[in-house]
Amino acid sequence: MSETVVELLRVPIVRGRQYLCELSMRIRHIEPGDDLAVSVLLDGYFQGSGMFHMVQQLRLDQDMALECVACKGDDLFGYLAFSKLKSPDNWWNLAIVAVSSAWRQKDADAYMIRKSLEFAREHGAQAVVVVGDPAFYTPLGFAPIAGENIILPFGRERTQIAYLEDTAPQELRRVVYPDAVGQAAKAS
Known about the structure:
Elements: E1 6-15, E2 18-29, H1 35-46, H2 50-60, E3 64-72, E4 75-84, E5 91-99, H3 101-104, H4 108-122, E6 127-131, H5 134-137, E7 143-144, E8 159-163, H6 179-187
Parallel strand pairs: 5-6
Antiparallel strand pairs: 1-2, 2-3, 3-4, 4-5, 6-8, 7-8
């Protein structure tokens, strides 16, 4: 990606009605010099090198749709990757979200996902599919995928979708992930 999108967020962090602090971070597209920091973050977050290998394979297979990092100053503390689904067309998968523990406590992962969904819309994604805890993803705009006869390789219970356009496809039959995502899931 040639252009660098930078979004400086200053977000008040509130628990209940109590103001805790203001979160200030920069979200931008990944740059070539970020790989070492991303590798260290992913290896620590996922306790092994499998996720960074998946990132490398998605890039090699040209299945990576968008990669963003979150920084404060020179400190890279968050990484997010969207892969292109094989089917349906123009649908993406939120393949990886990783935020260092100190920033996770400040809900940086949620803010990063919200902003990156805007980036995904701007880059032509019609919908984003995620596999994860519905209690975390539902407040971020994700919902269960409707339809009883849809083939979902990672199961219905944890697969959710955020539609980025006003209309959903009429007949969704199956969701097909890139090979690298399937290989990483089998290895974990």
